[in-house]
Amino acid sequence: xxxxxxxxxxxxxxxxxxxxxxxxxxxxxxxxxxxxxxxxxxxxxxxxxxxxxxxxxxxxxxxxxxxxxxxxxxxxxxxxxxxxxxxxxxxxxxxxxxxxxxxxxxxxxxxxxxxxxxxxxxxxxxxxxxxxxxxxxxxxxxxxxxxxxxxxxxxxxxxxxxxxxxxxxxxxxxxxxxxxxxxxxxxxxxxxxxxxxxxxxxxxxxxxxxxxxxxxxxxxxxxxxxxxxxxxxxxxxxxxxxxxxxxxxxxxxxxxxxxxxxxxxxxxxxxxxxxxxxxxxxxxxxxxxxxxxxxxxxxxxxxxxxxxxxxxxxxxxxxxxxxxxxxxxxxxxxxxxxxxxxxxxxxxxxx
Length: 351
Ligand SMILES: NC(=[NH2+])NCCC[C@H](N)C(=O)O
Ligand SMILES: [Mn+2]
Ligand SMILES: [Mn+2]
What we know:
Oligomer: single chain
Bound molecules: arginine, manganese (II) ion
Family: Belongs to the arginase family.
Structural class: alpha/beta
GO molecular function, one term: arginase activity
Pfam families: Arginase
Protein name: Arginase
Helix content: 25-40%
Strand order of the largest sheet: 2-1-3-8-7-4-5-6
């Protein structure tokens, strides 16, 4: 068989950038300073408490799961006096994200898919940064969110950094930021050509301008309505990963789901994705075999009733499990070849 240089180069690249999908690292980031509502920092603990790891252990083929615990950080003395206009809690944001980046890079270098539990979405700066460093920049990003998170400190109407992570990461927007002391570890690192949005429905006008001017791949709720979720994901992946050789980063803000599906979150917006669409999206990503890192953010157990919290966390766990291979078709028994059908009790319909 003749293999041309380009093909063999691609195969080598593919080997470098995929893991075998069976090893997973869980990282908690109990961080809430990217927005104003207390409670989102308890996201990692409630998701673990309500059984994430147990649910992942049920997945067919047995994942090798390692929980790396929670990220912690300490603000260095010289940063304590720094503030940046209209960027709330700047010194926390930069210090915590640096730790997040190092942890994600480390987990990926261990040959694991990195699942980061938030925390608010400002942590996306660290997770995408760490992913790109570990995979030598060969990364594409699916930002699943009601919001575009593309403000700079000059355009944000809130000063909340959870509305800014993609603008910090984007090469195309680097000139629109002032010098950010203590942020030298993070260079604007990704081209927005390698990013696609899914689920948008609450976009600020400056964000709209950037999306249109730069031609960012943005699939909003209207597109999901028009084409259906499978086609939308295919279109998104064809745009950001046409050669099917990139490590995929999914940054999933739980507010991408409709408020009825995920009520316990800080900036929820009606008219969003169903849980079914969220699960299907992640099943498609799982089947690519190229999921590298996965953030699940903005679950806030202090918002809503106990039932709201359970519903939201359950949705989050379903989405994570789908991305790691859980199948809605059910588990087959292990000794399936030798089992006589009679082993199963006859189905009785109780009316
Ligand atoms: N990750 C989020 N939930 N972001 C919401 C951002 C809301 C608004 N666009 C802002 O910049 O403040
Ligand atoms: Mn959001
Ligand atoms: Mn977000």
